[in-house]
Fold each of these.
Amino acid sequence: MTVQNNNDTIQETIHVIGGGLAGSEAAWQIANAGVHVVLHEMRPVRTTDAHRTDSLAELVCSNSFRSDDAANNAVGLLHAELRRLNSLIMRSADANQVPAGGALAVDRDGFSAAVSAALAAHPKIEIQREEIAGLPPADWQNVVIATGPLTSPALADAIRQLSGEDALAFFDAIAPIVHRDSINMDVAWFQSRYDKVGPGGNGADYLNCPMTREQYEAFVDALLAGEKTDFKEWETNTPYFDGCLPIEVMASRGRETLRHGPMKPVGLTNPRDPTVKPYAIVQLRQDNKLGTLYNIVGFQTKLKYGAQTDVLRMIPGLEKAEFARLGGLHRNTFLNSPKLLDPQLRLKAQPRLRFAGQMTGCEGYVESAGIGLLAGLFAAADAKQSSITPPPPTTALGALLGHITGGHIETIDAGPRSFQPMNINFGLFPPLASPPTKKPDGSRLRGNEKTVAKKQAISARALSDIDRWIADRLRTANAA
Ligand SMILES: Cc1cc2nc3c(=O)[nH]c(=O)nc-3n(C[C@H](O)[C@H](O)[C@H](O)COP(=O)(O)OP(=O)(O)OC[C@H]3O[C@@H](n4cnc5c(N)ncnc54)[C@H](O)[C@@H]3O)c2cc1C
């Protein structure tokens, strides 16, 4: 379908499938760019196992948008960037805030009602309550698919066939991810097993954390005692990925199981004491191109977050570990985006289809809205036959987009690795050219002060770069 706009140019209608966090934001941005949009939401005609209402942008679980501290926290920074871009999700969250300390938490019903009302009232938006139960019709030439982690099976199946991937819905095997600069390098050392160089490594690609027998025994005890999360009833039918048993399940099968699995101490020599063979070794592997994040190899776990942090900090070298993401297992639907999507979130195999939200491999309400916002801007630019450069990688939006479309490393030493969804965190940002070393009064920064100052400098750089990007876009639009 095409519609005539004010300038008498012919524009196509953009179809957004899924009225969740990402789809609602995408529709809002498209409509505000002056392009007609049809938002297709299947609820209440068909619902998911987690949604409870027919409101747009329903929050399926927590009512928190996490930290609102733009200076010190990456998700707070993302809030700030989204507000500068007239985000409907942020506007509705701010208007429905409930007290939650430094976090932005919302009255969930008020929030969803505000999003629904704004979309319904917009003259450029048409809302249709229907399931898109297969690939969108061929004459929909500009489509944003934002159907989320619980995409209906018929659509998920069609996308899976089109993408050529084996699976689209499965349990994420999420291993915890650690900030590299929080690892104690007086204990850990770099070495690949048997110094194997492999196709993409240099023989010293892994960080190794050694354990004595006593440390190993205490670690296994803590794993077995730690509090675990339960599967939800509807999760029980989804299979595990091969070879991704939680570590606590492995430990429960025998005290030596981990030592013969992810913690095997073979092919590695501790350079600090080559004569003493560690009883077990935990390995960490680089997780992003920047080398700022490392995942703990084979450590997927269903331990509750509090217990998990305590247990993982028992690992020598990780006593002060800061986690970019904790481990977990839950059902999810997402694309192998770095392989399948182009830098503007279009499916390479069929560029009329653009993806947004959790399906692309971001994780979280705010991140999903952020990628929805970008997908909306990109789709509107296509409809107006104009172009838009993505936000710089130094911004939270650019860093998230980079993780989805380019920041993942496909192979390292031991072979291919699967792409996993991720929350926004400072490890996704390019390092500072010159990290701060001194306080404003000229005295040296020490210990944690350095980390805090670094985060603040990354945030300040991001906000200045997003402002410049917005100003450049306005200049280009005014010149056109
Ligand atoms: C059980 C669960 C709990 C979660 N808890 C949290 C949490 O506490 N905090 C957090 O930050 N993140 C959480 N997440 C992760 C994630 O951030 C949210 O799921 C978020 O809502 C994702 O946004 P989205 O827009 O991509 O998908 P959604 O918000 O799920 O929106 C997708 C929409 O598409 C619709 N849809 C699906 N298929 C079709 C179709 N074929 N045709 C038309 N419409 C369709 C759905 O009805 C839904 O409205 C959770 C995820 C799950 C699965």
Amino acid sequence: MALPEHAAPGHTIRRLWPGDRPAVLDYFLRLDPETRANRFMGAVGEAGVRAYAERAVTAEGLVVGAFVDGVLRGLGELRPSGGPRSGFMLGAEAEAAFAVEREFRRRGIGTALFGRIARAARNRGVGTLHVRCLDRNKPMLRLAAKLGADLHRGARETRGDLRLVQATPFSLWYEGIAEAYDFTLSVIQPAIPEENAA
Ligand SMILES: CC(C)(COP(=O)(O)OP(=O)(O)OC[C@H]1O[C@@H](n2cnc3c(N)ncnc32)[C@H](O)[C@@H]1OP(=O)(O)O)[C@@H](O)C(=O)NCCC(=O)NCCS
């Protein structure tokens, strides 16, 4: 199944680079406590969020952001399942995580981020993409199911498994072009701080 990768007009979805680190930090610090708890599957204090946000873009894996009027409002992350330095190997498994600021939900951003992360995972040889969330997290459960993930319910959390089709020469070529475009965009249109938003 081809996953949608485009949000509404006026929204930009692109890969994030080390130069986006200040915007990523601001974004994580803006998340309300409930969103943070759902994203990290438990309560995380400001210091913990700050430490995580500082490393998010440079840690292993990759991060995709959703911009609305130039401000980062949503984030999708792809991480190898094997922990630090495990990398992505052919047929390997990987983890995805998402969060969209509350006022910007239900306009397709979560779907578009999921689509971009799945495409990036596929082109890095990932065979199965996992997404974990708390059992009561209906929006994430619905989103994962809608995009074709098999849901495995546990005592406290649910894991969604999305099987990815193998990369092709065309999908690899397309990924390379899209990343080069994203990098150029990050240089010519850097993220703007929320206080400067229109
Ligand atoms: C899960 C989340 C990322 C979805 O983001 P979003 O931008 O609102 O998602 P979309 O607008 O693309 O919605 C996609 C689908 O998700 C489901 N969904 C989203 N919000 C929902 C809600 N409040 N209730 C029920 N289903 C919901 C629907 O199936 C929806 O499709 P539809 O609009 O065609 O019905 C967002 O709710 C969020 O950031 N939650 C907090 C963080 C979190 O829980 N992360 C998951 C753990 S990694």
